Write the structure tokens for this entry.
Amino acid sequence: MKSAPRTAALVTGAVVVLVAPVAALKALGDPADPRISVGAPAPATLLPGDVRDTTGRMIANAVWTGLVAYDPATGAPAGAAAESVTSGDRRVWTVRLRPGGVFSDGSPVTARSFTGAWTAVLREGWAGARLIADVARVKGAGHPRPDGVDGLKVTGDRTFEVTLDRPLSGFPALLGDPAFFPMPEGVLRSRDWASYARSPVGNGPMRIAARAGGEVVLRRPGGGRDVVVRAMPDAARQYTAAENGDLDVATLVPPARHGSMDADFGGRHLAVPGRTVTYLVFPGWARRLSSPTARTALSMAVDRSAVTEGVLGHQYSPADSLVAPGILPGHRQGQCRLCVHDTRAAAAALKDAGGLPGPLSLWYQAGAGDDAWVRAVAGQLHGGLGLDARPRPVPDLRGALARREVDGPFAVHATAAYPAPVASLASLLDAAPALPADGSVTGLLAEAREAGTAEDGVIPARLAESALLRDMPAMPLWSAHDHLVWSGRVRGVTADAFTGLRLDRLSVED
């Protein structure tokens, strides 16, 4: 009989032991803060036309709905705020909006919401002005009038006309960029951009409910859990917080944890191919580098994987084509066979080309964060080919190029403006005016840009890429990519190179 109290105590203890883990799991799965939390560096601004970083782009694509949106699986643009974007000559485009569009403050989305916003971007010189003036080349964008832009004409409450300086088949695909997002009439009249940037009003699936203490809180008007974007620039802190269940999605992964993502998160991690490629470009006036054989020798001598896994900390992927891997429509993997590291073949090719005696300077913009990888590449060229390769940082690389002072390969970072192969190749040529491309390449790119449809432009763009890879006037090195890891309770993690993490698609398992 004396054992009865003891037995009861043991049973009670067992119940406590069993209940404690259940309570702990419940606390983990249903935290005191029910919001979905995302860690990211703080955005530079929330003005859509001035977005210039990944966090700003991510938030903008939740707060606004552009004329088109990108399919995360295919990268293809599809109508969003626009009912149609049509043209008979790829130069004059008619945009018709879907009926019933409203901003989160209840004001209507009209044609002027877009044309007025684009005019403001140009007039204020925001980051998006380059896309409107230099990529789309809207007529008169370089000299906007006080009352508008020559190439923008409102033809109805829901329709407007855009005239470009030259045909551009990719114009509809370009319209998904935040540079082309709308703004309410009241803001366009007041021009109080500072107040608007603090608490912007958009027409998207989410609205900004609060912004304080390094947090941006996004709310779904139709209901559902809020999403809070927390300013966490430190990758290690983000990763640990997600691992511990204190953060739902981390948008940065520290180099030291790259190899353990699968062990730490199972299948809950994702690498998002990017749209920016780093190249070494050979100036057309450098006669000692005019031989394609010598240029291909340098390309084969670079061990891209060693650099991306070393000094670049797994934040980049080795390039295997000239086109960024985030360009899903029309991108081809493995096009750059001469990007494969082969020291023996590189040495033989350099010998056939007559060698490269004397110093070989690798030019790059000082202060742009390129020092470590340029030193690594110089070391590989020295170790593999015996070249006297020397890093050459300069305070004004563009000025040195204009004065033709650059006598060796120079670093270029080129970002595609929209998802098409021609956009990636055109950004390379625009960023590297000294690139020795022949007329056939520029002709093919013009054909791709002016094709009847975006699909028709893929073949000439591929031919241009093949021609460039054959002569190697620019050797692709690597492309940036984003990392995502997330907790077990979150669902719907989706991202692409042009939109970033889709905040409006995040949910939790109830």
Confidence is low (pLDDT under 50) at residues 1-30.
